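Support case: user asked for a sample of complex input and structure output to validate their parser. Sending the pair below.
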Amino acid sequence: MRADTARFRARARAIDRWMAGLITGGGAAVLIATFLLVLFLVIESVPVLRSPRASSEGVVPQGVPLAAAEDEYRERVTVVGAEGSLHLVGRDGEVEVIPLEGVQPPVHQALFSADGRFLVAVDGVGRLHAFSWRQRVIWEGERRVLQPRLRAIAATAAGDGKHLLAVVGEGSSAKVLVGTEDGASVVHLSEKSTSATNLAVAGPAVAGALTASGEQAWVATANGLQWFQRLDPEVSLLEPTASVPLSFRPTTAAVLLGDVTLVLGGESGEVEAWQALPAAGAGWRLDQAAQFHGSGRVIAVTPSQREKSFLVQRITAAEILHLTSRRTLLALPGYPADAVVARLSPRLDGAFAVTAKGAVHRWSLQLHHPEASLATLFLPVRYEGYERAHVVWQSSGGSAGFEPKLSLLPLIVGTLKGALYALLFSAPLALAGALYVNQFAPRGLREVVKPVIELMAAVPSVVVGFLAALFLAPLVREHLLISAGVLLAAPSVAAVAVVWSLAPARWQRRLSGARELVVVLGMLVVAGTVLIVLEPHLHQAWFGGDVVHWLYQRLGVTYDQRNAMVVGFALGFAVIPIIFTIAEDALSNVPPSLVAASLALGATPWEAARTVVIPAASPGLFAAVMLGLGRAVGETMIVLMATGNTPLMSLSPFNGMRTMAATIAVELPEAPYGGTLYRVLILTALLLFCFTFAINMVAAAVAERLRKRFGRLAA
Amino acid sequence: MSEEVRFRLQQVSCFYGGTRALHEVTMDIPARGVTAFIGPSGCGKSTLLRSLNRMNDVVPGFALTGRVLLDGQDIYSSRADPVALRRRVGMVFQRSNPFPSSIFDNVAYGPRLHERLSPAQLALRVEEALRAAALWDEVKDRLNLQASMLSGGQQQRLCIARALAVRPEALLFDEPASALDPLSTARVEELVLELGRSLTVVIVTHNLQQATRVADRTAFFLLGRLVEYGPTVELFTTPKDSQTEAYVSGRFG
């Protein structure tokens, strides 16, 4: 018998220890998992702000250079030599020479297009030659071999006193922008024909650039900038579409990827970005979009073919700048003072420079995420084609030249707006409901209402979102007046109640408990019926038949079908059970002896609730609202379906929004792993985590303070 | 005795749901002095006490028949206002239940609800109530102290002060000293005696000695019926009923 007891005790102790270990381990695992989650978010998002890096790679001597380009794999730098041939300089110093057919040495000028696929040269007898330049990849077993292919497109007499400003090409035709002593012209070269369009420029062209499409030209003279919108081989003389005086002497120009922005370099180191914008009324105007600081004459600007960064080659230095973030990403370290040509590699993973003696310097680049900086993530940015700085979220576009707009502010504002409208709708209802059910409702009602409201939490949010988007949103749009009436129902009842409280106590006593409830519900039914019957007439009488139209006409308010009102309603549906349940529990925890004390002092039930129950339950009520807020901020499915996902900054109840959670849900599956968008989205997730974490922290801190104040109540 | 009557109970029966807790109690409680209700647990004495200021109203299923007259007015008539009634008839509970606020705010709670007093008047009222509850000297320097910081006996006297601050005509005590140590009990008893000189005081107690010490009249209840009611001395020394005699002499309880 005793042995049995001892064995039983030992087993009980073993189970105790085992369970204690399990529970401690489980708790620790939860903490560790949360920590690891945050760690993951930090590790994945922080690189977005990493500074770009460049490392110098190698120096290989060569001949006298005029122009240079590099292949996609950064295997060989192609240098145009004055003696009329291409020198393909490999990393190991091996050089392959390809003669430029039909070119009479010495070559005076040569120029590669921005993408490195077209080459123009002016030879010793003044002829202008255009070539297409490709390097095809073929595989010899495992080995990659680049097969160069140089093809002459056309040649034409260039004439004296002309200098090459820019070249672009497409297939077997090319356009060359040539500066002359009294202006500029565009030479259209193709295998079939050659023609020239003279550009009406005031004075000799100093610098110029062509868009990649070949449709527009920018020409800078010593004191002005002209923009030519429609280049056409058939047109022999073209007037500028817009022009503007310049405050500095330009030296070089280049059009950035996307064909929108022109970057001008200046005599004293100026670097400016210019864009053509629609002018007030009609036509176009040229507008300075950005200004970069730096010193030293700018020799050349070469745009990246990947994004909005560009290399500025100065007289003694070369820097990589970025348009969107308005930053100097880096200066190439160890840049040779006698460099003649400096360019970015096609994939933006490197840069090279060729010195006057023909030495080739290479750099490996890791620009990481140049378009993302704290400024572009959180401050207004003037994007291409915008008049002013804006905060915009538009992470992807149709073309390679699209400028990603990654401002997190619209998402943050959208998130807070959604949560705010949800709380505006749900917090008063849920708190008042909890108070009513807990303090005033007939007993039986509480037993019904509480489980029903808790059941609301069981409705999957995708169902709520679906109903809100496809059923509620059109309904609200169609019956805006009734919707407004519904929103006003609770305040109206409250107003009636305030008026009723002034009535004689004797009348009030007649209307208590269940009778009160029936009267209020009856009032609501009557008011609702009246509203439904009156609505069409009100529409006609006051709003000209359509409230939405009236709002726009009279108040200039735009109305989106999926808007903050609908979201507040739907999100509120998800938030109400949380607030109600926690608030009701908090109210239930107020000791009945306190209510009894208050009533015994002659307080009315409402006075007892107001002066004793609510203050005593306030930590719990506050925590309820904060947890509701946390739910509203983190909720994904409902906002995804019901907000319209337009990243607007408007706080109007009639406009949609886009929340952080919905953006992550929509865009993360499509974001290339490790890319800027991916990292920015992970950063958004981290921010969201911080948000909810901060909300919970504040909730806990305030609840703790309130609890201290009403200390004894915990018991 | 031509004493003024505060409460006149006429065939009062109380029910909780279907269960009868009090059976046709008829008695008069005079306006001055202390009246004690005694009897074993479940005899209905607390129910009767709570019927005097309608604190039973909040209990689900409670019903009362018969008439309870306060100064000649039926407090259960449809025209009577329970809130106004409770202002006139205060109550002190078994366990002290101060609000989770300062001493001052506890006492000021009632006056703030019912009257518009200037801060100075309010301070005076609070002092007056605290003096009447014999607590003033102990707390006058720390009125802003949390009420929960006081000792159990002080808290109970604070609850008495709180009830006195609305200047009630009657004060009901529901076993006010049952959770207190002997010293605190003595102080509360003193207070009850003192208050009985100016107010109608009704006290429910389990403690027979307490009844003999504080009460002018005592009512003995058993199984929901009023068995005997009379001057305390008579009830304890020469009870008319044998059940009363058995109870006061400690043969059951």
